[in-house]
């Protein structure tokens, strides 16, 4: 998604506003602070459709009973390297923080760990959770069943697959860690929603009509469309297997069971996720790995560019630069989102977003 255009807002102000909003709808102080921290991470990384942009929707679902603001999250260790987290229908951010912490702790003992989650909710940007492994010198891999079906199986006219994201984080030495965070559709539905909010026309190739298969570029008609997978049938297949591993394997929703949280504020979503943590030192000395990573990444960036390109950009490189810049200069928030947050502040009787 193109970066939000608007006056920069201090990161601390965004976090404070999110925390106030979460507490206003009944979330305990510590949980509200953690949700604010993780939502802010999406904004800092540049995932503008997954941070504070989502707050009005989260609040609406909590108020309607669709999300439990006082969830008791439980972890069942099923073997030395595996566990399942029951989110008690809590905020997905809190569920995945617990799942990531569990995977990292298990991987310190076993070298690799796979943790699944059920009865969760939308958790924001996938890369946030994969990247939790980086400070522990581990590789993180994350996926989830997205919270609405917007993609058909290849060749079908009915959406029974989601934008199921995949995120992988790999540490480096002096170079930025590689953090790949992609939807299995050409574009995430959050980006499409942001275009609709701003009244912007979408590029051709993002969506097609469910009626005749023709391209949809009018963002006001996204309800009539199907999101297109990356790489044609390959993206559709990738969304399928990720959905099976995050949904069916965990006893979570998949296919017709998926609740469209854009249209239904009251139903429990039973969102499924999984996260894998891999201890690099079990395969190769850490210093050797990081030196090799730096060499390989520098080789890639130094390669000759095609006409029309000015540089080689690797996943995670801009993420690190953008995060530092937004921490120091503020997070750009487009005016339409600011207006929604001001309205939310009035409804919840909390202080408006400071800017």
Structural account:
The chain has helices spanning 11-24, 29-45, 55-64, 92-110, 126-130, 189-198, 233-246, 286-301, 317-329, 335-348; strands spanning 8-9, 74-79, 82-86, 112-120, 138-144, 149-152, 159-162, 166-170, 178-182, 207-209, 215-216, 225-227, 271-279, 331-332. With 355 residues, the chain is α+β, with helices and mostly antiparallel strands. It has a seven-stranded mixed β-sheet, with helices on both faces. The chain has a three-stranded antiparallel β-sheet with strand order 11-10-12, with no helix packed on it. β2 (74-79) and β3 (82-86) form a beta hairpin. α1 (11-24) packs antiparallel against α2 (29-45). The two termini are 23 Å apart. The model has no long low-confidence stretch (mean pLDDT 95).
Task: Outline the fold blueprint.
Layout: E1 8-9, H1 11-24, H2 29-45, H3 55-64, E2 74-79, E3 82-86, H4 92-110, E4 112-120, H5 126-130, E5 138-144, E6 149-152, E7 159-162, E8 166-170, E9 178-182, H6 189-198, E10 207-209, E11 215-216, E12 225-227, H7 233-246, E13 271-279, H8 286-301, H9 317-329, E14 331-332, H10 335-348
Parallel strand pairs: 3-4
Antiparallel strand pairs: 1-14, 2-3, 4-13, 5-8, 5-13, 6-7, 8-9, 10-11, 10-12
């Amino acid at each position: 998604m193109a970066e939000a255009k608007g006056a920069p807002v201090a990161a601390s102000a965004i976090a404070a506003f999110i925390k106030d909003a979460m507490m206003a709808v009944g979330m305990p102080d510590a949980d509200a602070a953690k949700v604010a921290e993780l939502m802010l991470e999406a904004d800092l990384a540049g995932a503008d459709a997954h941070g504070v942009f989502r707050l009005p929707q989260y609040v609406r679902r909590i108020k309607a009973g669709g999300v439990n603001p006082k969830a008791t999250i439980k972890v069942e260790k099923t073997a030395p390297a595996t566990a399942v987290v029951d989110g008690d229908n809590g905020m997905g951010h809190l569920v995945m923080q617990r799942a990531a912490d569990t995977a990292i702790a298990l991987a310190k003992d076993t070298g690799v760990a796979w943790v699944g989650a059920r009865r969760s909710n939308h958790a924001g940007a996938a890369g946030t959770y994969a990247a939790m492994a980086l400070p522990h010198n581990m590789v993180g891999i994350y996926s989830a069943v997205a919270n609405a079906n917007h993609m058909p199986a290849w060749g079908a006219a009915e959406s029974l697959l989601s934008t199921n994201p995949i995120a992988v984080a790999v540490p480096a030495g002096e170079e930025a860690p590689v953090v790949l965070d992609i939807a299995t559709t050409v574009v995430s539905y959050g980006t499409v929603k942001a275009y609709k909010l701003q009244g912007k026309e979408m590029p051709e190739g993002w969506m097609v009509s469910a009626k005749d298969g023709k391209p949809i570029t009018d963002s006001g008609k996204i309800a009539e469309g199907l999101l297109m997978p990356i790489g044609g049938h390959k993206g559709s297949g990738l969304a399928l297997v990720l959905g099976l591993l995050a949904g069916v394997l965990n006893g979570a929703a998949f296919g017709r069971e998926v609740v469209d949280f854009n249209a239904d504020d009251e139903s429990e979503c039973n969102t499924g996720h999984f996260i894998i943590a891999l201890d690099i030192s079990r395969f190769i000395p850490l210093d050797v790995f990081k030196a090799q990573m730096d060499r390989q990444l520098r080789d890639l960036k130094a390669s000759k560019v095609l006409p029309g390109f000015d540089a080689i950009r690797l996943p995670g490189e801009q993420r690190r630069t953008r995060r530092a810049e937004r921490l120091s200069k503020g997070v750009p928030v487009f005016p339409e989102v600011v207006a929604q947050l001001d309205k939310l502040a009035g409804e919840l009787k909390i202080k408006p977003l400071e800017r």
